[in-house]
TrEMBL record:
Its EC number is 4.4.1.2. Keywords: Pyridoxal phosphate, Transferase. Belongs to the trans-sulfuration enzymes family. CDD domains: CGS_like (cd00614). The modification N6-(pyridoxal phosphate)lysine is found at K209. It comes from Companilactobacillus versmoldensis DSM 14857 = KCTC 3814. Pfam families: Cys_Met_Meta_PP. This is homocysteine desulfhydrase. It is an enzyme of class 4 (lyase). One of its GO terms (biological process) is L-homocysteine biosynthetic process. GO terms for molecular function: cysteine synthase activity; homocysteine desulfhydrase activity; methionine gamma-lyase activity; O-acetylhomoserine aminocarboxypropyltransferase activity; pyridoxal phosphate binding. It comes from the Bacteria. InterPro entries: Cys/Met-Metab_PyrdxlP-dep_enz, OAc-hSer/O-AcSer_sulfhydrylase, PyrdxlP-dep_Trfase, PyrdxlP-dep_Trfase_major, PyrdxlP-dep_Trfase_small. Its cofactor is pyridoxal 5'-phosphate.
């Protein structure tokens, strides 16, 4: 692992031009399959004895591989797997951890589709979620860990209420019970926060959002911190014999844990989930994502600065009841924000309008500049009403407990001029209440 700094790695990580005809930018390897060489070489490649070899683009592709290496390095992980969406990254990670059934602890306050999957789909596969109101209530989390609990899952910054998870404390609790901590770091991106440094074992991303930053690709990533020991206890899928790993080097004892050591999790995710379930990311999408990633620091610095101005503007507006933004000194999470987010809390914030449901609709219809759509982390500023769009599938009673009422609006701040954005918001609020 190189010791270069973040801004260097985001440009050069995982890529050596000499291996690609000296092309400055990573070529798009728009090829389904790759020649195996001689019969003897082909046998070695197929047996997994040649590292960084490519055979078929559902399993691995050089353009996609560069993205995977770059993200793993940016996040301080040992390896990563790129997949076709953030939901695929979450799904494959949960299945690879809790295959065959078990329990996972997670908060209610997460991405709507993830909550829907955890509550209504995974239980049908024998994976039961113990959902909590407050993921930072450490005593409650401890009390929920049972013999078949296999992981703790949380978002570093939650969607849409912008709650910061105390990752370091949660990691300690997980590791005391020999279970991994999985963090969805989508809102923060590796530029603002690196969960592995605070003890997380696995990091998942919807790189559709801030990592790419231009709203043009749907994609996901799983990053492995490489510190969790999968070779015993609750995780037999890693220490049972895996026939496809049998080769001349491992004629016996060919389990993922034995063959791959601390890479067991990420190698298994690629070989059992990406290869067999197939939610693959294409090379052109990976190329666009790396193009977006090249400017992540500058984009986020500007978006964070504008987000802070907008939070302050909203905080002082008489028609706004509450602003969800831990970067404000009045927030009860201000201290956590200082600890985990020295570069700023992010480009996404929410606020509750002091008005009726109809006023909220009116505000959306009066909105200038901000696009009304369900996405975040774009270079364009966006607005959405979570109760009716992104969190529509969450039962009303549950939503209201988490503050997701009809007056809640989520903003994702883009790269436009901050004065224009504030003017757009101010005009829409004035029009709504005139
Ligand atoms: C968007 C999002 C997802 C899902 O990602 P897709 O790329 O849309 O599948 C998961 N988690 C969070 C926090 C998200 O914002």
């Amino acid at each position: 692992m190189s010791k270069q700094k973040f801004d260097t790695v985001r440009i050069h990580g995982g890529y050596d031009p000499k291996k690609h005809n000296n092309a400055a930018q990573i070529p798009i390897y728009q090829s389904t399959a790759f020649s195996l060489g001689t019969a003897a070489e082909g046998a070695e490649v197929a047996a997994g004895l040649v590292s960084d070899s490519f055979t078929y683009s559902r399993v691995g592709n050089p353009t996609v591989h560069t993205l995977e290496q770059r993200i793993a390095e940016l996040d301080g992980g040992i390896d990563s797997v790129a997949v076709g969406s953030g939901m695929a990254a979450i799904t494959y990670t949960i299945l690879n951890v809790a295959e065959g059934g078990g329990r996972i602890i997670a908060p209610y306050d997460i991405y709507g589709a993830a909550l829907d999957e955890f509550q209504t789909l995974f239980p049908k596969y024998g994976i039961i979620f113990d959902l909590v109101e407050d993921i930072n209530d450490i005593e409650r989390i401890k009390s929920l860990i049972k013999p078949d609990t296999k992981a703790i899952y949380a978002e570093s910054v939650s969607n849409p209420i912008i709650n910061i998870t105390d990752v370091e404390e949660l990691a300690k609790v997980a590791h005391e019970s020999r279970i991994p901590l999985i963090i969805d770091n989508t809102f923060s991106t590796p530029y603002l926060f690196q969960p592995i440094k605070f003890g997380a074992d696995l990091v998942v991303y919807s790189s559709t959002k801030g990592i790419n930053g231009h709203g043009n690709v749907v994609s996901g990533l799983v990053v492995d911190g490489g510190k969790f020991d999968w070779s015993k206890d609750k995780f037999p899928q890693f220490y049972e014999a895996e026939y496809s790993l049998k080769n001349s080097k491992y004629p016996t004892n060919y389990s993922f844990a034995n063959v791959y050591g601390n890479q067991a999790f990420i190698k298994r995710l690629r070989m059992k989930y990406l290869r067999l379930m197939g939610a693959v990311l294409g090379p052109f999408d990976a190329y666009l994502e790396m193009l977006g990633l090249e400017t992540i620091s500058e984009r986020l610095d500007k978006e964070v600065a504008t987000g802070k101005k907008i939070a302050e503007y909203l905080n002082n507006n008489p028609h706004v009841k509450r602003v969800y933004y831990p970067g404000l000194p009045a927030s009860n999470q201000y201290e956590l924000a200082q600890k985990y987010f020295p570069k700023g809390i992010g480009s996404i914030l929410s606020f509750e309008l002091d008005g009726s449901s109809e006023d909220t609709d009116k505000l959306i219809d009066s909105m200038e500049l901000f696009l009304y759509l369900p996405n975040v982390g774009d270079s364009r500023s966006l607005i959405v009403n979570p109760s009716k769009i992104t969190h529509r599938e969450v039962p009303e009673e549950r939503r209201l407990k988490d503050g997701i009422n009809n007056q809640l609006l989520r903003l994702s701040i883009g790269l436009e001029d901050s004065d224009d954005l504030i003017k757009g918001l101010d005009n829409a609020i004035n029009k709504t209440f005139k």
